[in-house]
Amino acid sequence: MNLWTNEPDQCKHLAKPSIPQFVVSCSLMGWLLICYLPQWARIVSRKSAEGLSTYYILLGSLSGVCAVGNIMMLPSSAVELGCCRTNTRFACISGLLGMLQVIFGIACFWIVLFMYVYYSEEEADAEKHGRRASISGPDRTFRRAKRAIRVLIAACSFAMSILLISAIILHRFPWVAQTWANILGIAVACFACVQWVPQVRTTWHLGHLGSLSPTSLCLMAPYTWIFGINMMIRVGQKDWSAWIVYVLVGTMQVVLIVMAICFAIRDRNLAKEGKQHCSVPPEFEGWNTVSTWTSRSRQTSILSHRASNVGPDERSPLIRSQLSPREVSHKQANHHS
């Protein structure tokens, strides 16, 4: 069985593409770009990845890899690719729009991954060299920078593994392509569900969104639902693994939007009372913590322990001694005697 060979009758339904569906698909891709622009801008403006859960970034990247593998392994995608040999260019592009939408959406999230890694490193370097103070405190900033590199390595390694396995199946074992696509679809759904749980938990404990853009969430939630419905119509209920993830993701995004509204109302009420919300202490790591608390982790960074030559610090005595060096030596001798 050759997965890439298609009979002429298999391409008849793609030879005359639906113009309204083409317009809707292109509009959804443009909408997705608009959804991610506020998120990218918020990270750049804050110059910090504070508020973004490490597990959220990692699981989102893994979920995206599985989503690309899933859409590439579906027999319907193979038919659309094969029909590009016989159909017109417009019909070919129209048939591939579903696949392109998935790949484009994952590419946008991977930009968030790269920005997370870059600004985690940049913020830690700025704190270390004294260019500016980190938003979330030295300890959390340095730990986040270390984890960011591990997240990037893990995501890239996972992507190479999935793509290699998918290529082998397509060329050597094409009859198990549908099964492998369903497995990847289930993995996408699992990753997507678990992905948003640590982000919701981290946002709840922080009491604010941090570098997570509320505008992006408000734009992305309806897009997720509409795209999920569009994929459901395109591939049908048989290929449920291609659209079930968007229903689950859309639900979690609505939860974050509700939390953002609650935080905004709380901050507004506190502002009327002349108060300000006190953020969570620097020791909080939420789901970003991979080990139990130790006494050392509750201490502030060594960088914050530098003695100041301008004014007293927290380790300086409240009342300084006014005795001369000779009187101090005499007092110490009497004390030892």
Characterise the protein shown here.
- It is a single chain.
- The protein has ten helices and no strands.
- With 337 residues, the chain is an all-alpha fold.
- The chain has one domain.
- The chain crosses the membrane at residues 22-41, 53-73, 93-119, 151-173, 179-197, 209-228, 240-265.
- This is PQ loop repeat protein.
- It is found in: Membrane.
- Keywords: Membrane, Transmembrane, Transmembrane helix.
- It comes from Exophiala spinifera.
Index terms:
single chain, 337 residues, mainly alpha, 0% strand, globular, transmembrane, PQ loop repeat protein, membrane
Please provide a brief summary of the model:
It is a multi-pass membrane protein. This protein is 68% helix and 0% strand.
What structural class do you assign from the helix and strand content? mainly alpha
Structural shape: globular
In helices, the fraction of residues equals 55-70%
Mean pLDDT: 75
How far apart are the termini? 98 Å
Q: How many beta-strand segments?
A: 0
Low-confidence stretches: 1-6, 279-323
What value does the Rg take, in angstroms?
Answer: 27 Å
Strand content: under 5%
- The count of domains is 1
Oligomeric state of the chains in view: single chain
Total number of helical segments? 10
Q: Tell me about the biggest sheet?
A: none
Order of helices and strands: HHHHHHHHHH
